[in-house]
Write a structure and sequence with these properties.
The complex is a heterodimer. Chain A is an alpha/beta fold. Chain A folds into 2 domains: about 180 residues, P-loop containing nucleotide triphosphate hydrolases (Rossmann fold); about 70 residues, no CATH class. Helix content of chain A is about 35%, strand content about 25%. Chain A has a 6-stranded mixed β-sheet with strand order 6-7-8-3-9-10, sandwiched between helices. A 4-stranded antiparallel β-sheet of chain A has the order 2-1-4-5, covered by helices on one side. Chain A is globular and about 55 Å long. Chain B has one domain: MetI-like fold. The termini of chain B are far apart. Chains A and B meet through helix 2, strand 6, helix 3 and helix 5 of A and helix 5 and helix 6 of B. Chain A: It is an enzyme of class 7 (translocase). Chain A: GO terms for molecular function: ATP binding; ATP hydrolysis activity; ATPase-coupled polar amino acid-transporter activity. Chain A: Its EC number is 7.4.2.1. Chain A: It is found in: Cell membrane.
Chain lengths: ~260, ~220
């Protein structure tokens, strides 16, 4: 991995980048997001944690409208999320997303995966796109795998390619939907290291994860969700050492002591 | 014993099979294009398109091909004056037959491709949308290429069926293999031999198709 020694930019109020107001969503009878208010500042790293079924993945997916919402508003960089169509596609290009199951395009090589969006969405010319793709692949440490197909890579490598693919679009914000949950334990760190580097470089990130170590070391803020609600928001140190809500105490006691 | 085979010159034996090949190739290409468009309609987010695609497939695939082919000639051409730009009756029959074969076969191509689309994991489309591809880009660049590769086998079946279905074009006077066979059977005594010759001719056309596409299907399979 290339060593980039960029100190983390000062997060202090460079503006609100992602604003969710009063967001509600139902899956049938299940009220999966209940009156969610959440504001993420430019350059901020927010980690969303909580028990399974608490709505944290759904929350993450509503931000680029892979899930629609029933009521409330979501704005990115001051602009409300458009409905379907070209405007929505344009917005999604500015929001990078990394999935639990990687979702690399199975019929394209690693290099093509990272070039596709640049060429088809950003209209970058092929040569520049390839240059950028190769440098991003080097940056996430899979430069030597550029000509392989996704199925030939390990899970950790695939996920790093997926991160490179998202970064190739120069996103304003990156969404990570449980990026390490499908990985073998020994591959989790290689992905987390890339994410940590990204955080240090000042990328705005929303990370849904069960990796408490990552939350402690990289997050500016921890958002704890349970039963479709945001129960607690705090800086990591305060949240992990001194959670205020009973729900968070209960959750932490189950995951931290073994 | 095979003397009679060279007694025919309108069409000749080879000429008749060449007509079968032309009907198959042109209808094959046409139905692949139209069938893909129908499949795109059936998965599109626009309800009107979905409705049209569904209605088309369910109506057309349930009508006998003979009825469709005869309708193109007696209905489209004779009543509605659709001559497909042909002044000559033979050319008109040829073009109408292709129209009918495309209309019919596309329904089966559509369903094969749609089942292929269902084999592509949802995450592929989500990832494509997440990098900002539009619906049609997602379909063209991500979903259909993977869907096609997984349905080469079923499409080979459709192509083989199409090759044999071209014989129905004889009903509107297209001089292809079955047309010649009927003529020979009327004039010659060796009916079993005639049948065998034409059966063999079709096997020669379809067997390599099946083997080649089977090989292609394995070669192009998407590894997950």
């Amino acid at each position: 991995m290339t060593e980039v020694s960029v100190a983390k930019e000062d997060v202090a109020a460079t503006g609100e980048l992602v604003v969710l107001k009063n967001v509600n969503k139902h899956f049938g009878a299940l009220h999966v997001l209940q009156d969610i208010d959440l504001t993420i500042a430019r350059g901020e790293v927010v980690v969303v944690i909580g028990p399974s079924g608490s709505g944290k993945s759904t929350l993450c997916r509503t931000i680029n409208r892979l899930e629609t919402i029933d009521s409330g508003t979501i704005a990115i960089d001051g602009k409300p999320l458009p409905a379907e169509g070209k405007a929505l596609a344009k917005l999604r290009a500015d929001v990078g997303m990394v999935f639990q199951s990687f979702n690399l395009f199975a019929h394209k090589t690693v290099l093509e995966n990272v070039m596709l969006g640049q060429i088809k969405v950003r209209k970058t010319d092929k040569k520049k796109a390839e240059e950028k793709a190769r440098s991003l692949l080097d940056r996430v440490g899979v430069g030597s795998q550029a000509d392989k197909y996704p199925a030939q890579l390990s899970g950790g490598q695939q996920q790093r390619v997926a991160i490179a693919r998202a970064l190739a679009m120069d996103p304003k914000v990156m969404l990570f939907d449980e990026p390490t949950s499908a990985l073998d334990p020994e591959m989790i760190n290689e992905v987390l290291e890339v994410m940590q580097q990204l955080a240090r470089d000042g990328m705005t990130m929303i990370v849904v994860t069960h990796e408490m170590g990552f939350a402690r070391s990289a997050a500016n803020r921890v958002v704890f969700m349970a039963d479709g609600k945001i129960v607690e928001e705090a800086v990591p140190d305060q949240f992990f050492s001194n959670p205020r809500s009973d729900r968070a105490k209960d959750f932490l006691s189950k995951i931290l002591h073994h | 014993m095979f003397d009679f085979l060279s007694d025919y010159d309108n069409p000749t034996l080879l000429g008749a099979f060449w007509m079968t090949v032309k009907l198959t190739l042109l209808s094959g290409i046409g139905s692949l294009v139209w069938g893909t468009l129908l499949a795109a309609m059936r998965v599109s987010p626009v309800p009107l398109m979905r409705g049209f695609g569904t209605a088309y497939v369910n109506i057309v695939r349930n009508i006998p091909l003979t009825v469709i082919i005869i309708f193109t000639s007696l209905g489209l051409a004779d009543i509605f004056g659709v001559t497909m730009g042909a002044s000559d009756f033979k050319v008109q029959g040829f073009r109408l037959a292709i129209l009918g074969l495309v209309a019919y076969t596309a329904a089966f191509v559509c369903e094969a491709i749609r089942s292929g689309i269902n084999t592509v994991p949802l995450g592929q489309a989500e990832a494509a949308r997440a990098i900002g591809l539009t619906f049609s880009q997602t379909l063209r660049l991500i979903i259909l290429p993977q869907a096609f590769r997984s349905v080469i086998g079923p499409l080979a079946n459709v192509l083989i069926a199409l090759t044999k279905n071209t014989t129905v074009a004889a009903a509107i006077g297209v001089a292809e293999a079955a047309y010649l066979m009927k003529e020979m059977i009327e004039n010659e005594a060796q009916t079993v031999l005639i049948g065998a010759v034409f059966a063999f001719g079709f096997v020669v056309l379809t067997l390599p198709t099946g083997l080649f596409l089977g090989w292609l299907s394995k070669r192009l399979a998407v590894k997950r």
